[in-house]
C-alpha cells in the first residue's frame, strides 16, 4: 500500500476533495494534523487507528521527526495510511518533508492536494486574491520570519516594492513588525488589510484596517490564530462583492443534533441559507459486561435512564419476577415508559428526568433500606451519595457507557440556536453536558414530543416548529434568526 499525504482543506469539512474523503473512509491508519478539523476523522472506519500528531499524549505536539518516523513505521506494514493535513499539504504544511522521509525509506506515497487556507479564507470572506485592474499577482508568505531579525529569509522590502496582493500565513503575532517593515520599504500606509480568522469555519471572523492601523485594530479585537492576513487593494473589493452577508442566516451558527447520517439534509439546507453548522454530540450506548447480581435482595431498585430497563433485565437473567419484592423508582416519565416496555411498572416516577428530582422524592423513605441503582458508568454520584446520606445501603451497577458520535466541545452550546429533531437528540445533548445548566439555550424544537423532552430535562426552548418536519424546522430557524 501507499502513504497518502492528503489536504483536508481550510476547515469546513465540505471543502475536502472527493479523493481525499474517499481515502479517509478507506484508511487503516489516520495521522492527524492540528488543523485537520474534528469532523473529517469521524468519516473513518470504526477500526481505523487514529493518531493525533498535533496533540500527542501530554498535549505536546509530535515533533516533525516523530511524525516522519510514524508515517514510515505504518507505511512499512502495508496499511493504507492517510496523513491528513490542514489546507494543502505542500503549502507551509511540511508535507514535502514527510514526502522526503518516505522516499528515503523507500515507501510509496501519493499527494492529494487540498484547498489552501491562503486562498480559501480570503475567498470565504469575499476577498478575491486577484482582481483585474487591482492586482495581477499574489504572494503567499510565512509570517513566521520576524522582519526585525537580520537572519530573516524573507525579503520584506522586495515584497513591498512588488506590490500586488500579499497573503501572510502564521503571522498574527508579528503583524506590527510586518506592517512596519512594508511601510518602511515604501508600501502605502493606507493599503487595505484584512484578517480572516478561522476561515470557512463556524467561528470565521473578518477584521479590516490599513497597513498603518491593522496591528492596533487586531490587538483591540483580540485576533488569534489560525488566521490569514491579506494585504492589498483587493481587500476593499469585499465591500462590493462580499456575498455571505446577503444570505438570511449569514453569520449565524447553528448546532444540529441529529445523528450524523440523518443530519446531512438539515445541515445542507441551513448551510445553503448561509448558516455555519456545528454537529452536536449524539450518543452511542455501549453495554457493559456485569457480574451476576442478586436483584431479589433489594428493597428498592432505581432506574436512571430509558437505556437502563432492558439492560437491567438482561443483567438479572431475563426474568423480571426476580424483582417482585422490590419497589421500582424511575427518573422521569421516559424511563418509566422504558420500564413498561420490558413488562415492569414503576412505583415511583419523578416528574423531571434529573437525579435531583428523584432524590427529593426518595430521601425521606429510604432509611435502612437496601437500594440498587442501575445506571450509566459516567453518571453523577448525586443519587448514590444523597441516598446514602439519607440512611440507605446503596449498591450501584453500571450497565452501560455512553460514547459520543461527535466530539464533545463547547461549540454547540455557544451556537446561536440548537435544533432538536427528536426526544433522543435532547437526551443526547443533556447527557453530553451533565454539569451544565441548559435552561438558557436557544433550543428549536421540531414538535410537541421533542418540546416535552426539553421541558422535562430543563433545556431552553426558544421556538417550536409549526409544521413538525424538516421544512417546519428550517422555517422556525429562519423565524428566530433571520
Ligand atoms: N497547509 C496549510 C497551511 C499550514 S500553516 C494550508 O494550505 O492552508 C498554518 C497557517 O495556515 C495558520 O497559521 C494560518 O495562517 C493558516 N490557516 C490554516 N487554516 C486556516 C483557517 N481556517 N483560517 C485562517 N487561516 C488558516
Please state how the strands of the largest beta sheet are arranged side by side: 13-18-17-14-15-16
CATH topology of the largest domain: Methyltransferase, Cobalt-precorrin-4 Transmethylase, Domain 2
Strand content: 15-25%
Bound molecules: S-adenosyl-L-homocysteine
* Helix content class: 25-40%
Radius of gyration: 28 Å
- Name the CATH class of the largest domain: Alpha Beta
CATH architectural category of the largest domain: 2-Layer Sandwich
Average pLDDT level:
91
Based on DSSP secondary structure assignment, what is the total number of beta strands? 21
Shape: elongated
The biggest beta sheet reads:
6 strands, mixed
CATH superfamily grouping of the largest domain? Tetrapyrrole methylase, C-terminal domain
* Count of structural domains: 4
* Span between termini: 50 Å
| Helix and strand composition category | alpha/beta
Q: How many individual helices? A: 17
Key features of this structure:
single chain; 482 residues; alpha/beta; Cobalt-precorrin-4 Transmethylase, domain 1; Methyltransferase, Cobalt-precorrin-4 Transmethylase, Domain 2; Rossmann fold; 4 domains; six-stranded mixed β-sheet; five-stranded parallel β-sheet; 17 helices; binds S-adenosyl-L-homocysteine
Can you walk me through this structure?
This protein is an alpha/beta fold. It folds into four domains: 3-115, Cobalt-precorrin-4 Transmethylase, domain 1, CATH 3.40.1010.10; 119-244, Methyltransferase, Cobalt-precorrin-4 Transmethylase, Domain 2, CATH 3.30.950.10; 253-282 and 405-481, Rossmann fold; 286-402, Rossmann fold (3-Layer(aba) Sandwich). The model has no long low-confidence stretch (mean pLDDT 91). The strands form four sheets. Strands 13-18-17-14-15-16 form a six-stranded mixed sheet. Strand 14 (300-303), helix 10 (308-315) and strand 15 form a beta-alpha-beta unit. The chain is elongated, with a radius of gyration of 28 Å. It is 33% helix and 21% strand. The structure holds S-adenosyl-L-homocysteine. The site of S-adenosyl-L-homocysteine (SAH) has 25 residues, from helix 4 and strand 10.
Amino acid at each position: 500500500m501507499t502513504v497518502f499525504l492528503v489536504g483536508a482543506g481550510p476547515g469546513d469539512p465540505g471543502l475536502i476533495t472527493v479523493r481525499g474523503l474517499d481515502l479517509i473512509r478507506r484508511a487503516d491508519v489516520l495521522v492527524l494534523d492540528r488543523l485537520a478539523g474534528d469532523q473529517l476523522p469521524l468519516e473513518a472506519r470504526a477500526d481505523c487507528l487514529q493518531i493525533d500528531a498535533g496533540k500527542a499524549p501530554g498535549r505536546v505536539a509530535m515533533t516533525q521527526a516523530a511524525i516522519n518516523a510514524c508515517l514510515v513505521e505504518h507505511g512499512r506494514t502495508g496499511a493504507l495510511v492517510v496523513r491528513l493535513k490542514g489546507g494543502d499539504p505542500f503549502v507551509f504544511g511540511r508535507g514535502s518533508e514527510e514526502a522526503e522521509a518516505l522516499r528515503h525509506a523507500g515507501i510509496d506515497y501519493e499527494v492529494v492536494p487540498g484547498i489552501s487556507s491562503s486562498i480559501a479564507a480570503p475567498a470565504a470572506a469575499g476577498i478575491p486574491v486577484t482582481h483585474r485592474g487591482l492586482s495581477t499577482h499574489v504572494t503567499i508568505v510565512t509570517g513566521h520570519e520576524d522582519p526585525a531579525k537580520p537572519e530573516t529569509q524573507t525579503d520584506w522590502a522586495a515584497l513591498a516594492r512588488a506590490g500586488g496582493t500579499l497573503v501572510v500565513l502564521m503571522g498574527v503575532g508579528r503583524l506590527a513588525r510586518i506592517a512596519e517593515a512594508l511601510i518602511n520599504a515604501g508600501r502605502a500606509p493606507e493599503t487595505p488589510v484584512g484578517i480572516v480568522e478561522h476561515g470557512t469555519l463556524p467561528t470565521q471572523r473578518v477584521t479590516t484596517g490599513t497597513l498603518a492601523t491593522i496591528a492596533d485594530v487586531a490587538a483591540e479585537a483580540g485576533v488569534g490564530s489560525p488566521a490569514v492576513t491579506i494585504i492589498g487593494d483587493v481587500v476593499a473589493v469585499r465591500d462590493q462583492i462580499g456575498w455571505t452577508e446577503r444570505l438570511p442566516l449569514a453569520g449565524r451558527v447553528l448546532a444540529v443534533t441529529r445523528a450524523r447520517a440523518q443530519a446531512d439534509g438539515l445541515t445542507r439546507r441551513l448551510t445553503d441559507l448561509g448558516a455555519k453548522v456545528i454537529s452536536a454530540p449524539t450518543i452511542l450506548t455501549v453495554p457493559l459486561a456485569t457480574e451476576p447480581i442478586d436483584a431479589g435482595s433489594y428493597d428498592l431498585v432505581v432506574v436512571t435512564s430509558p437505556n437502563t430497563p432492558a439492560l437491567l433485565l438482561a443483567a438479572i437473567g431475563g426474568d423480571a419476577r426476580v424483582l417482585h419484592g422490590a419497589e421500582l423508582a424511575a427518573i422521569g416519565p421516559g424511563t418509566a415508559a422504558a420500564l413498561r416496555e420490558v413488562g415492569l411498572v414503576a412505583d415511583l416516577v419523578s416528574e423531571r428526568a434529573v437525579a435531583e428530582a428523584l432524590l427529593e422524592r426518595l430521601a425521606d423513605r429510604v432509611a435502612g433500606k437496601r437500594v440498587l441503582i442501575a445506571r450509566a458508568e459516567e453518571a453523577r454520584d448525586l443519587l448514590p451519595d444523597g441516598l446514602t446520606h439519607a440512611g440507605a445501603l446503596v449498591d450501584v451497577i453500571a450497565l452501560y457507557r455512553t460514547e459520543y458520535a461527535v466530539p464533545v466541545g463547547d461549540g454547540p452550546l455557544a451556537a446561536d440556536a440548537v435544533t432538536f429533531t427528536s426526544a433522543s437528540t435532547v437526551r443526547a445533548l443533556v447527557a453530553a453536558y451533565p454539569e451544565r445548566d441548559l435552561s438558557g439555550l436557544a433550543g428549536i424544537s421540531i414538535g410537541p414530543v421533542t418540546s416535552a423532552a426539553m421541558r422535562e430535562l430543563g433545556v431552553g426552548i426558544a421556538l417550536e416548529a409549526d409544521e413538525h418536519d424538516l421544512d417546519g424546522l428550517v422555517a422556525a430557524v429562519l423565524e428566530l434568526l433571520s
